[in-house]
Design a protein that fits this description.
The chain contains ten helices and five strands. It has 210 residues and is an alpha/beta fold. A five-stranded parallel β-sheet has the order 2-1-3-4-5, sandwiched between helices.
C-alpha cells in the first residue's frame, strides 16, 4: 500500500497554492495543506506535516526566518523546502543544515522542482552547492566569531528605537542590507524577534560595543 505524505505550502499566492494542490497530490501521493504565514504555527500543532514549503516570493524574509526557527525549536520531525529563493539577496541564513531539504531558485520551473522533490523523497537533499558551502562556512564562522563588527553596530542602533530605514541611512547602506545583518545577528545570538534582540543587547552591551 502506498503511503500518503503530508505537506504544507506557506504562501500568500492563491494561484500558486491552487496550482500545486492540483499537481502534487497526483504526482507524489501527497496531501497538501495550505497556510498563510500567520496561521502556520496553529496548523502545525494539529496536522501531521512532514515538509513545509515556503514561497519566498510572497512572504517577508524576517517572518520566514521566525517560522523556520519555530520549526527548528518545536518540530524536530518537520523539514523545510524553499521555493522562489532569491538569487540577488544574501538569504543563506535561512538554510539550516539539518532542517532544510531543498532550495529552488525563483527561475526554477515546476518540472525542475518536481525532479528535485523526487530526489528529496529518495532521501537526498536538493540544495545548490554554492549555497550549501556558504551556509556551512557561516556555521563555522559563527562558532569562531559570534558577531561581526557591522552586526554589532546594527544591534547597537536597535537600542535607540531606530527603524531599519533609519539604521540604513545612519550606516550608508541599503535597507535590505540592514535586514540581512539583523537576520544573521538574530541567528547568532539565538533570538527570533526585534524585541528579543533589544533585550539581549541591553543585557550583553559589553559584547555589542565596538
Amino acid at each position: 500500500m502506498f503511503k500518503v505524505v503530508n505537506w504544507m505550502i506557506v504562501s500568500r499566492s492563491q494561484l500558486l497554492t491552487d496550482l500545486l494542490d492540483w499537481r502534487w497530490p497526483q504526482e507524489f501521493l501527497a496531501k497538501l495543506s495550505k497556510s498563510q504565514p500567520s496561521s502556520m504555527a496553529k496548523m502545525l500543532a494539529v496536522e501531521p506535516i512532514s515538509i513545509v514549503f515556503f514561497d519566498l516570493s510572497t512572504i517577508d524574509l524576517q517572518q520566514v526566518y521566525q517560522l523556520q526557527r519555530l520549526i527548528e525549536r518545536e518540530y524536530c520531525s518537520i523539514h523545510t523546502v524553499f521555493i522562489n529563493f532569491p538569487k540577488q539577496l544574501d538569504t543563506r541564513f535561512l538554510i539550516h543544515p539539518t532542517t532544510t531539504l531543498g532550495v529552488f531558485y525563483a527561475d526554477s520551473s515546476l518540472n525542475e522542482i518536481s525532479l528535485g522533490l523526487n530526489n528529496i523523497m529518495k532521501g537526498r537533499r536538493v540544495i545548490p552547492q554554492e549555497l550549501l558551502r556558504s551556509a556551512l562556512n557561516d556555521e563555522n564562522d559563527e562558532d569562531s566569531e559570534p558577531l561581526t563588527i557591522r552586526e554589532r553596530e546594527v544591534l547597537q542602533t536597535l537600542l535607540s528605537g531606530s527603524t531599519n530605514l533609519d539604521i540604513a541611512n545612519q550606516l550608508f547602506v541599503s535597507e535590505s542590507t540592514i535586514k540581512t545583518h539583523l537576520y544573521r545577528a538574530f541567528r547568532k545570538i539565538g533570538v527570533s524577534s526585534r524585541g528579543q534582540a533589544i533585550a539581549w543587547a541591553q543585557t550583553h552591551m559589553h559584547e555589542v560595543r565596538i
